[in-house]
Design a protein that fits this description.
Two copies of one chain form a homodimer. Chain A is mainly α and about 200 residues long. In chain A, about 70% of the residues lie in helices and about 0% in strands. Chain A has two domains: about 45 residues, Homeodomain-like (Arc Repressor Mutant, subunit A); about 140 residues, Tetracycline Repressor, domain 2 (Orthogonal Bundle). The first copy, chain A, has ten helices and no strands. Chain A starts with a helix and ends in a 16-residue tail after the last helix. About 5% of the residues of chain A have low confidence. Chain A binds a DNA duplex (18 and 18 nucleotides) through helix 3.
DNA sequence: GTCTATACGATGATAGAC
DNA sequence: GTCTATCATCGTATAGAC
């Protein structure tokens, strides 16, 4: 088999196993078995197990960022831009569920240098959403909200779908995206103003 | 040292290490070192590493459920009940950050029986929020939304705080809770209605 | 209750033949 | 490119002394 094809097979098998069993619980021998080769042969294609994980995460983040930028092209209305971005984010995460689940749960498997590289990409991606929200606030489309906190909240909420979504479940990707979209846009318009109130009760621990 | 005290020390050290390094990356010897004993001595207090993880998760879920139920006592208005529950959820998660982070990232470390036990507790907890939302819809306080999807979204969004919150950061627990609370309640009232639109573009992968 | 010593298995990775 | 064989290490857990 040509190197490029086997390399892709290994990556695909690893993605599936990392998703189903987790990075640490997956042994190189498992990936080899799934790929139909011996474990030593894996190292001809990838330098290490971590290298394989990094490759998956890097590709995912790259594709996600490119996809969202494409999605936004030609859309000018501030609110519609955020709606489009949410749709894109949800669509990408639910369609490429395994990779995205890994990207959100297995960063721990990376050494500090690789970790920083992925976090840098993630930060840049988050900034796209933060800019969209800020623009919406400046234009008066949204209420004056905390951009950082709510951008994390919004992305997390949409991403979470990747952990429970089932392609043949009750709702399809578009339906789920629409539910999120309306919830988020309404939340950002803040029909409900802030309410002053006493602090929560003290907690042990 | 009396058994109960050392047992608590071990649990506390393990919580800290599982939070900082992850369950798989933490060795029994690490926990022993942090507790000031030899690794073999750990097994006098806990049957296995998984037993220790399970103990942390069980206590956390128990305390969380009890806390939320207490928080809701005596509150009758539907909207205020959900607001109170959100405040409680956020407060608990940001105050007992480490345990909650583990509870949301290390379920993989459990064998199927223990896994099911924790998931059962989590499901029961989620049902509290689902009932609150459903009540709000029935009473006309909230729009007719998808309860399951949005309950997951709401809990995930609030829980996420446990992964980035810093006690001495820009905002304190109450401020963050209020931001979430207003965002969520506004989202559930849905000033913005559903918008029909074409499906998202096809995705590769 | 805690210690030392050790059994035992698994895993990531390498060496070198084909 | 893939194989067989093997290394080196580490981690959980147990045995038995104190």
């Amino acid at each position: 088999m040509p190197a490029t094809k086997m390399k892709a097979t290994i990556k695909s098998v690893a993605t599936d196993l990392f998703y189903r069993k987790g990075y640490y619980a997956t042994a190189i021998s498992d990936i080899a078995r799934g790929s139909g080769i011996q474990k030593a042969s894996i190292y001809y294609h990838y330098a290490s197990k971590e290298d394989l994980l990094f490759s998956i995460l890097e590709t995912t983040m790259d594709d996600l960022t490119v996809y969202i930028r494409e999605t936004l092209e030609g859309v000018s209305d501030v609110e519609e831009r955020l709606r489009v971005a949410i749709r894109g984010h949800v669509g990408f995460h639910l369609t490429r569920q395994k990779e995205n689940f890994i990207a959100n749960s297995e960063l721990r498997g990376l050494s500090s240098q690789n970790f920083r590289a992925i976090v840098r990409m993630r930060d840049a991606y988050e900034r796209i959403f933060q800019d969209l929200i800020r623009r919406g606030i400046d234009d008066g489309a949204f209420a004056v909200v905390d951009v950082k906190i709510l951008s994390y909240a919004i992305l997390t909420l949409c991403t979470a779908g990747a952990s429970w979504f089932k392609p043949d479940g009750r709702l399809n990707v578009d339906e789920i995206a629409l539910i999120y979209e309306n919830f988020i846009i309404s939340g950002l318009k803040q029909a409900e103003g802030a309410v002053l109130r006493p602090p929560v009760a003290a907690l042990s621990g």
